[in-house]
Design goal:
Length: 359
């Protein structure tokens, strides 16, 4: 009886899909989801707790989310003529973009391997998704990208900067030519800067030049993964259209207050980001010294590394109490690749020792 109901009312393509999987991590060193490993100092924890305790949680969030929007605009250096909208993490913003661009025959495009939510969100909205493979070195294949844009004329193109799971920044001149090509087909470009706190470049100068470009960021990698705040920036007229799809009160008053608190203490989070970048270089050098391990350059808080047998290495790491992400099944270019989040120095040393024992 129940299956008959499911078959009648649930889309068949959804029935054949798999839900986004989160690995169990209890009791393990958690280096699988690109989280900031540092908590606030005790004094700031107490200050935040007292502040959240004073929030009027009996009221819907309204002005406080407007305050957060303004604070994020100042923090990001939002150019004049641009606006910012909020999402419950970047995932909700990606859903809003899919909904906004759901016109007859629309196509969403992104390089692959990339963030899985681009394709998933397009599919759930009934849009066609076209993935354009990266080169073997995980750089953009410029010729293939330009050809795909000309052929499919996508309404929406995602460029993650840095990319997930490869962690690299792409060639700036190539990106510029791709952005110009999207202008010719009257499509939108979204620069997804989830890992911007750890990268040497960002897309704000490009946002000033191109009216069809949007920049998406999140406070998750900033250090608030549990708070779920994403934000999207672009020309005021364009953001106003996407804002119409934002659910009312999608950012809770507690989350907004925590986000404001974090921005008021941005220097502490900048210190944490600097520590992570320093550890990233140490871990990359240590991985490069291991026999048969090839770590790829990283501008994020993670490192992609190719090992002789990803399944065996993943199992060995887990047996030693360390959880990473085996991404080798996500795309042929990622064969035998593990993605390792940069943790604290102690966590990173434990991961390196466990990997040595697992190879």
């Amino acid at each position: 009886m129940l299956q008959d109901c499911v078959n009648r009312v649930i889309r068949r393509d959804i029935q054949s899909m798999h839900a986004y999987a989160v690995q169990p991590s209890a009791g393990l060193v958690k280096l699988d989801t690109m989280e900031n490993p540092y908590r606030l100092p005790d004094a700031l924890q107490r200050e935040l707790g007292e502040r959240l305790g004073r929030v009027a949680i009996n009221r819907y969030p309204a002005e406080r989310t407007d305050d957060l929007r303004h604070a994020l605009a100042v923090h990001a250096g939002l150019p004049s003529g641009c606006a910012l909208t909020l999402g419950n993490g970047s995932d909700e913003l990606i859903t809003m973009l899919s909904m906004a661009c759901d016109v007859s025959g629309a196509t969403v495009m992104a390089p692959v391997p990339g963030f899985v939510m681009y394709a998933m969100s397009a599919t759930l909205q009934g849009l066609r998704f076209v993935g354009v493979p990266l080169r073997a070195d995980f750089e953009l294949d410029e010729a293939a990208m330009l050809a795909a844009i000309a052929e499919h004329r996508p309404g929406l193109l995602y460029l993650a900067y840095p990319n997930n799971p490869t962690a690299n920044l792409w060639d700036d001149a190539v990106i510029e030519r791709i952005v110009n090509a999207m202008a010719e087909v009257r499509g939108l470009v979204v620069m997804d800067e989830a890992y911007q706190p750890f990268a040497s470049h960002d897309s704000m100068p490009r946002l000033r030049r191109h009216p069809h470009l949007l920049v998406m960021r999140t406070m998750s990698k900033f250090g608030l993964a549990g708070v779920r705040i994403g934000y999207l920036m672009g020309r005021t007229e364009l953001v106003a259209e996407i804002e119409k799809l934002r659910p009312p009160f999608n950012v809770s008053v507690l989350n907004a207050e925590a986000g404001l608190f974090a921005l008021e203490h941005a220097d502490e989070y900048a210190r944490q980001a600097a520590a992570i970048r320093h550890e990233r270089e140490r871990v990359h050098a240590a991985l490069a010294e291991l026999p048969s391990v090839h770590p790829y350059p990283s501008q994020a808080n993670m490192i992609l590394a190719r090992v002789p047998d990803a399944a065996a290495a993943f199992a060995g790491l887990r047996a030693h109490g360390v959880l990473v992400k085996n991404v080798s099944g996500l795309h042929p270019l990622l064969a035998n690749c593990l993605r390792v989040t940069i943790g604290t120095p102690e966590e990173n040393t434990r991961m390196l020792d466990a990997l040595k024992a697992s190879l």
